[in-house]
UniProtKB/TrEMBL annotation:
Pfam family, one: PQQ_2
Protein's name according to its UniProt entry: Outer membrane protein assembly factor BamB
SUPFAM superfamilies: Quinoprotein alcohol dehydrogenase-like
Alphabetical keyword list: Cell outer membrane, Lipoprotein, Membrane, Palmitate, Signal
Gene that encodes the chain: bamB
GO biological process terms on file: Gram-negative-bacterium-type cell outer membrane assembly; protein insertion into membrane
Membrane topology term: Lipid-anchor
Biological role stated in the UniProt entry: Part of the outer membrane protein assembly complex, which is involved in assembly and insertion of beta-barrel proteins into the outer membrane.
UniProt domain Pyrrolo-quinoline quinone repeat: residue ranges: 78-309
Protein's cellular compartments: Cell outer membrane
Record bears the keyword Membrane: yes
């Protein structure tokens, strides 16, 4: 137990150092960059707005909403879960779990899945909010569970990958990993296909497991720990993995952004990067929110940087998302920024929540959903 507690303390310490501005070499912490002026080219229209309890809470949670069909699901840190029509914002049902939610939300195949700080996974009926089952896992669940209709896959804070039966919640298998000595608070959200469960680890590796038996199919190291101190050697994969076609996209803190072959794990391309929130991809480019506050566009074919926007340094940017022909991301003051996919110039800005905008934007077709730290969920379209 002492070892576990020491590891948890180290995780929190590492993130505290990161949040304080580890991109600066100066002993004096530099403030976030001032918002740059620009000529607005795109205006956003608020279609509807709803309050989701206390939002992300005081801990560094990433409670990203989820969309399934015409429904959008969101949860707050205290276990308030809401289902809404994603086009009108009408509330379909509400459920109060009265539990410290930290991993939310996975949705699909008739289930809404949330994870808790107490090491539980709770499955709700997507149409009614009725609890279907709950399962105990080995430690905190800080990322959304993934579901392929047969198996629910959960990644816990101690780097274990756990498979649960989607119908009953009973455990199918557990795959043990040894976490890094020092790690950020958080985990990558796993991916599932009909045959694989794929997860990014705190050691800078990506692992693919057979979905039915939990046996390794391939393992690939994306980042190699470097430096003298343990802080320098942190190479967590905390941003959500992305899957497009047969390519798995991944980025690490103090490491690389890379594309991996889904079947073999072979590295298709890679580029140096440092991100703890994740990436987006589109038009043959990968967009990365760097830990420093820079947003880069990287060409998948040449791995060269097509453009780099460094005007938001130290503003603790969210993961990016492609929205129409733009790239959208939030910041610590709750602003949603839009930049051009072509050259990275600012084209639009909207303040969502004065408490901050940490969760990555969620894009479905012509709609963008932004969930602020204080609990404000807003649906936006381009005018």
């Amino acid at each position: 137990m002492r070892d576990v507690m020491r590891w948890k303390y180290a995780a929190l310490l590492a993130f505290a150092v990161l949040a304080a501005g580890c991109s600066s070499n100066s002993k004096k912490e530099l403030p976030p960059a001032e918002l740059p002026d620009f000529t607005e080219e795109v205006q956003l229209k608020t279609e509807w707005s709803r309050s989701i309890g206390d939002g992300q809470g005081d801990s560094y949670n990433m409670l990203v909403p989820a969309v399934d069909g015409d429904s959008i699901f969101a949860a707050d840190v205290n276990g308030e879960v809401k289902a809404m029509n994603r086009l009108t914002g009408d509330v379909l049902w509400e459920q109060d779990l009265d539990l410290p939610v930290s991993g939310a939300i996975g949705a699909g195949y008739g289930l809404v899945l949330v994870g808790t700080l107490r090491g539980e996974v709770i499955a709700l009926d997507a149409s009614s909010g009725e609890e279907k089952w709950r399962a105990r896992v080995t430690s905190e669940v800080l990322a959304p569970p993934a579901n392929n209709g047969d198996v629910v896959v959960v990644q816990t804070q101690d780097d274990r990958i756990i498979a649960l039966d989607a119908a009953t919640g009973s455990q199918r298998w557990v795959f043990d990993n040894t976490p890094a000595v020092l790690t950020l608070r958080g985990t990558s959200a796993p991916l599932v296909t009909s045959r694989l469960a794929i997860a990014g680890l705190s050691t800078g590796k990506v692992i693919a497991l057979d979905i039915q038996r939990g046996l390794p199919v391939w393992e690939q190291r994306v980042a190699v720990p470097q430096g003298r101190s343990e802080l320098d050697r942190i190479v967590d994969i905390d941003g959500a993995l992305r899957l497009s076609g047969n390519t798995v996209y991944v980025t690490t803190y103090q490491g690389r952004v890379a594309g991996l072959d889904l079947d073999s794990g072979r590295i298709l391309w890679q580029h140096e990067a440092s991100s703890y929130v994740g990436l987006a991809e589109g038009l043959g480019s990968v967009y990365v929110s760097e830990a420093s506050g820079t947003v880069d566009s990287i060409d998948e074919r040449s791995t060269s940087v097509l453009w780099s926007n460094d005007k938001l340094a130290r503003r603790q940017l969210s993961a990016p998302e492609v929205f129409s022909s733009y790239v959208a991301f939030g910041d610590l003051e709750g602003y949603l920024h839009l930049v051009s996919q072509t050259d990275g110039r600012f084209v639009g800005r909207e303040r969502i929540d004065s408490d901050g905008l940490r969760a990555r934007p969620l894009v479905v077709g012509d709609w963008l959903y932004a969930y602020g730290n204080g609990g404000k969920l807003v649906a936006l379209t381009i005018r």
